[in-house]
Amino acid sequence: MGVTLSAFGDVTHTVGTTDWSFTADQSGAASQTTSGVYQGFFDFSALATGDVFEVRCYEKVPTSGGAQRVVWSAFVTGVQSEPILATPALTLGVGFDWIVKKISGTDRAVTGRIARVGDIADIAYYQVGETVGTTEHSFITDTSGPDAATVPGVYEAFIDVNALAAGDVFELTLYETVASSSGTQRVVWKHVLTGPYSHPVLVLPSFIAGVGFDLTMKKISGTDRAINARIAKAV
Amino acid sequence: MTLLTLPPDWGRCSHNIGNPTGINFGSAVTAGANNADGSAASVLSALAHDVEMLVIGISGFGNTSGAINPCTLLDILVDPAGGTSWSGTPLIEKLLVGGTYPVNLQSATVGVGAPPLWYFFPIWIPAGTSIGGQARTAHSSTITGRVVIWAYGENRNPGSWWCGRKVTSIGINASSSRGTDHTPAASSSYSSWASLGSPTTIDAYAYQWAAQGENDTDWQSTTPASASPYNFQFGVDSTQIGPILVKGITAGEVGTSFPTGPMFRHIPAGSQLQVRGAAFGVSPQVIDLAAYLCS
After folding, report:
1. What's the ipTM?
2. What integer is the mean pLDDT of B94-101?
3. How many A-B residue pairs are in contact by the CB < 8 A criterion?
4. Which of A51, A59, A190, B138 could form a disulfide with B177 if both were Cys (CB 3.0 to 4.6 A apart)?
5. Average pLDDT over every residue of B33-55
6. Which residue, among B156, B161, B166, would best test binding to A if mutated, counting the most A CBs under 10 Å from its CB?
7. What residues in B contact A40, CB-CB < 8 Å?
8. Is the per-residue pLDDT at B204 higher than 90?
9. Do B295 and A194 touch (CB under 8 A)?
10. Residue by residue, what is the 3-state secondary structure of chain B?
11. CA atoms B76, B78, B82, B84: torsion sign
């Protein structure tokens, strides 16, 4: 897995209110499909009082037919004493982009560079598209869960909960086993999901797993909903 | 070892304070009389940014000069479309707000030294949403209080701050505009732990505690008047969670609490919240309590 410091971008552009793609150096979001672990670096040293800019990462969850949505965003406001914004490293490759746009203030010159670690093992090592109800559903086996996956790897999960509406409450749970021999699978953490989401793709930070892990979802209340989930395997 | 993490860095704070033109801070919300909801009032219109932290200040749902039952519950409403078509389910239901002092910073005799009652919720609200308030009181007439909201968002470091999406209110008795009644022990001793509401149904990660007052028109002067102040502990399995909630009932049908700030703790589904209290005086009054869990 080699490091490419300038996989995309490495350009300076005067950014206004329209999305500016730093992977394609164009107006409007592009859809990149070269998989890898990406981290963006953006230089906002030109900002002045009253300026607000947003950095967004777009990606698709299903490898076929999915909508490109915001998976991460951050806001940069005013004069910057720490002018370089470094994004988290994300495992991307279905249809992604890194963009910058102005929210308010004056158009400013922004330099962006996207670094990449590649090649990764599989952008969609696990993938499900399923209607989830009150029965806990495994995103590993696409059946009732939890199951216990034993393939070691560095994983990152993307879950599209765009179908959640007002009144829906779901629960997302990560399981793993600590003792590699005869250990018991237990809960690592839970998240309560309440619809609707304006940015409906949830990204779980990378985790190293493989003793007996699973990622599951179930409905607590509301309506059964169609959920797309994809777990990328970086290594 | 110290893990170097980035701090929250909110670029925006929307609010409804307005200019310093008088004593009427924030937005007026009129509580409906006789435990019936009053009309909804707009507090913040069409937020220009996502919100990760909501701070709510309440004042004026009490009476410093006459004997009333000021018990009041406040709903925080949202309209995701940015108007005033409020969602059927409030964002935050039934905050205990009764008996709060009117804030008057123009007079040396009314309200000075008694700040608003503050609630702190790390909760996500999408840009474009309007926020409103709706209240009900046990009093036989309407009471108009004031609601101030600080709404923080546009985080430069979005991974630095947790915020939930749902608030569950625990121990509410809407028919009397109260929480759950509890009698603290006298003379600075604590009462026995008592259940607050039913066991929780979903995991929660942040919380707020609340206390209101008596369920009558004589909050302070019931013999002996020196029962106040009260300390309340909230917890699970007879073990305290978080800080003590200090409640003072000082004059007329008003009181004040020490603000706690946002409080974080994993409270798993199935937890039975409990409370106990200690009064300074020898004849404690029945005080109502509630909890708000953020998931």
Report:
1. 0.84
2. 95
3. 52
4. B138
5. 97
6. B156
7. none
8. yes
9. yes
10. CCCCCCCCCEEEEEECCCCCCCCCCCEEEEEECCCCCCCCEEEECCCCCCECEEEEEEECCCECCCCCCCCEEEEEEEECCCCCCCCCCCCEEEEECCCECCCCCCCCCCCCCCCCEEEEECECECCCCEEEEEEEECCCCCEEEEEEEEEEEEECCHHHCCCECCEEEECCEHHHCECEEECCECCCCCCCCEECCCCCCCCEEEEEEEECCCCCCCCCCCCCHHHCCEEEEEEECCEECCCCEEEEEEECEEEEECCCCCEEEEECCCCCEEEEEEECCCCCCCEEEEEEEEC
11. negative
Interface test with A, best of B202, B264, B266 (most A CBs within 10 A): B202
Look over chain B and give the mean of its residue pLDDT values, rounded to a whole number: 91
CB contact under 8 A, B80 and A88: no
Assess B218–A contact: CB distance below 8 Å, yes or no.
no
B contacts of A73 (beta carbons < 8 Å)? 158
Cis peptide bond prior to B229, omega within 30° of 0: yes
Report the C-alpha gap between B76 and B289 in whole angstroms. 18
pTM of the model: 0.91
Give the Cα-Cα-Cα angle A23, A28, A30 (nearest 5 degrees): 40
Q: Which residues pair with A216 in a beta bridge?
A: A138, A173
Residues in chain A within 8 Å Cβ distance of B165: 192-194
In whole angstroms, give the CA distance from residue B250 to residue A123.
63
Q: Quickly state the pLDDT bin for B110 (edges 50, 70, 90).
A: low
Q: B11 and chain A: CB distance < 8 Å anywhere? A: yes
Which residues on chain A are in Cβ contact (under 8 Å) with B293? Answer: none
* Pick among A192, A204, A206 to test the B interface (most B CBs inside 10 A): A192
Chain B hits for A205, Cβ within 8 Å:
159
Strands A84-86 and A26-27, bridge-based pairing: unpaired
Written as six digits, the tokens of A111 are: 């330099």
Residue B198 scores a pLDDT above 60: yes
| Contact call for A169 and B202, based on CB within 8 A | yes
Angle (CA) B40-B42-B44 rounded to 5° is 150
Distances (CA, A) of A65 to A60, A69, A129, B207: 9, 12, 11, 40
Query: B254: pLDDT confidence band, cut at 50, 70 and 90?
Result: confident
Measured in angstroms, the CA of A194 and the nearest CA of chain B are apart by 6
Q: What is the pLDDT of residues A109-135, one digit of tens each?
A: 999 999 999 989 999 999 999 999 999
